[in-house]
């Protein structure tokens, strides 16, 4: 392959799907990981391996990466996009939902990093792009645990960036505002979902997954000696 392997988690819809389409069009071979393998295969992208993987299973990630590297060569970029947003009040929300979010949003991200980082350091090149949120920079009503996971994404990304900078490996945080994805559908409270939809309409609509894919492409396609450490992007009328 003339271009290096890119791994995308949560690639079956939303930001992951849009990013897969964008990078495939740019000629990158891809390893797409998600629980819904049929949706990824339906994209019918060239030079793409699709595997049913839960990011909380580090062994499954490692096996898929090994298979893709055998076919396409070493991973040059990991995009940690898989995520869950389960909103609720701290005294009402089921703690199991908190655990799910921390397992996927934090441990899932760390699992992917663990699988690819040693190879990147050894090769003295590579990029890890972690999809966070504006909720990783400030708090929102009903978002306490979700914000906690995304603040963790910001902190972990910056911490590891500092650790591997001398190895010529880049760590990048992408922090979107409200995006038109399936993320909200996992929240069980109809009242919270209705309020969120009203907020989105009040700003005249939210940004599209393609907008995030474009930002990811921009950051990744910079020369290796340039690290765009963080991109924050949202609808112009989004407040806060």
TrEMBL record:
Residue ranges constituting the Ketoreductase domain according to the UniProt record: 4-163
One Pfam entry name: adh_short
Any one Gene Ontology molecular-function term assigned to this protein's record: oxidoreductase activity
Alphabetized SUPFAM superfamilies for the sequence: NAD(P)-binding Rossmann-fold domains (SSF51735)
Record-listed E.C. numbers: 1.-.-.-
Similarity annotation: Belongs to the short-chain dehydrogenases/reductases (SDR) family.
PANTHER family listed in its UniProt record: DEHYDROGENASE/REDUCTASE SDR FAMILY MEMBER 11 (PTHR43115), DEHYDROGENASE_REDUCTASE SDR FAMILY MEMBER 11 (PTHR43115:SF4)
Protein's UniProt name: SDR family oxidoreductase
Gene source species: Photobacterium piscicola
Native organism taxonomy: Bacteria, Pseudomonadati, Pseudomonadota, Gammaproteobacteria, Vibrionales
